[in-house]
Amino acid sequence: MIQAFRNFITRRTFAYKLRNKAMNMFSSFENFNLIREKAEASRKAENRPHEVLYFHKVDDPYSHLTVHYIDKFKEAYDVQFKPILVGEENPAALHEPTLYTDYCLEDVKRIASYYDVDFPGKSYPEKKLVDKANSILTAVNPDEFGSVAKTVSHALWSGDLAKLEELEVSYKSSEQEVIETLKEGNEIRNGCDYYFGSAFYYEKELYWGVDRLNHLEDRLTELGANKSSDNEPVCLLQTKAPDTLTAEKSVNLTYYPSLNSPYTFVSAKRVKEFREEYPINLITKPVLPMLMRMMVIPTFKGKYIISDAAREGRKYGYEMKEVFSPIGKPARKAYSLFPLIDSLGKGFEYIDELLKASFQEGINIGDNDYLKNTVTELGLDWDSVKRDLNTSKWKKVLNDNVNDMYQGNCWGVPSFKITDADGSNPYYVWGQDRMWLLKEEINRRLT
Q1: Of 127, 98, 135, 113, the residue nearest 64 (C-alpha)
Q2: Three-state SS for 192?
Q3: N or C, which terminus of the chain has less Cβ within 10 Å?
Q4: Each residue of 198-222: b (16+ CB within 10 Å) or e?
Q5: 2 in a domain, yes or no?
């Protein structure tokens, strides 16, 4: 009953005050700094070392990448490193599990070489191999974890049973020991308000995998925990695509945004810059927010998403300020105008303005005066556009958009699709984290 009520209010406009308050609290730079300051003061008062937790899930493709940087990280920073073996993801945080697992595997196949990591996986490993990997790592002491876990991970994703059996001679745990280790690991992970593997935790803050290790490195450097003065990051992408590209041909870049997504907001500025930097035909296909697609986002996941997106926004010079969530009627009203505005050539610009209003200016985008002013500032005639206000034509458009997005195993936003100019050869990417990969793919196609 409690969960049903919670699900109900997350989808209703009347809950906007509580939702806005929470989103502003989690995205606030002031609160972010205050939490860090209090955590550091507490650590010093208790005379504790810099302790970094790392959650490792053996059959998580991203953990295969991350584990290759553990020893490098330990060498670079004066920290007490604590690896924690975890099992299944928290099911409350896992949406579209089949799409999720398929996408994760494909994503790591694509990006591993850019991190100078060999990922041999073609499919997910068999359970008996996963069990052996967990048994070995349960018996490994923390000092050896990085090196042994790399060997285990490569054998696991290669399907190398002989290598795992060889390791079991030196590292062996009982079935009950593995069960207890994974249970304890999940409890620690859940207690840190996280839900997946391949993540670091340091003093009230989470850092997911190789994509967020830079934030942890920056924090530890600010605290003077780095062992050298060169401040060279441990984890660097090795990209090939230039910052800007000129070519005779162009590609289509389809952008799937959502009006309630902080990650979409963080991406919008770079999407705008993308048009100036690369030869693309930008196609904007908005989708409904997850909450309006009958998905439930638990509080702990919502907290992480908003705080992490705010952190990423600051990294890219596009800070969240005053947030007004448009879930419900505001989003429906704003979406109702999109098909016509898009047909007039201003689809992306309209979505961009709505996102800035929601995540920087704290404006209710469902307000008629706001919509009128926005449409007028886009150089469009309000009297013509407003005829579509509160009509339902947009629903089929957004439904078609989300179905198109799902074709690439993408369910979250922002997602992207590259096609050749004729619409063929689709290449889907999920997340603002992978905008660099879009450039790599376009560079590959056009040069």
Answers
A1: 113
A2: coil
A3: N
A4: bbbbbbebbbbbbbbbbbbbebbee
A5: no
Q: Which residues of 333-353 are buried (b: 16+ CB within 10 A; e: fewer)?
A: bbbbbbbbbbebebbbbbbbb
Within the chain, how many helices (H) and strands (E) appear? Answer: 20, 8
Q: Do 267 and 214 fall into the same domain?
A: no
Residue 201 belongs to domain spanning: 49-222
Distance CA 411, CA 404 (A): 10
Residue 19 inside a domain? The answer is: no
The dihedrals phi and psi of 255, each to the nearest 5 degrees, come to -115, 125
Q: What is the DSSP letter of 226?
A: B
User: Tens digit of pLDDT for each residue in 223-240?
Assistant: 999 998 887 899 999 999
What would the two tokens of residue 110 be? 């694509």
- Contact status, residue 165 vs residue 132, Cβ threshold 8 Å: yes
Distance of CA 375 to the CA centre of its chain: 31
Asked, for residue 81, whether it belongs to a domain, the answer is yes
Listed in sequence order, the residues at least 6 apart from 397 whose beta carbon sits closer than 8 Å to its beta carbon are 338, 339
Can you tell me the distance from the alpha carbon of 163 to that of 167, in angstroms, rounded to the nearest whole number?
A: 6
pTM for this model (two decimals): 0.94
The full DSSP string for 310-362 is: HHHHHHTT----B----TTHHHHHHHHTHHHHHHTT-HHHHHHHHHHHHHTB-
Q: What is the pLDDT of residues 367-383, one digit of tens each?
A: 999 999 999 999 999 99
User: The domain that contains 263 carries what CATH number?
Assistant: 3.40.30.10
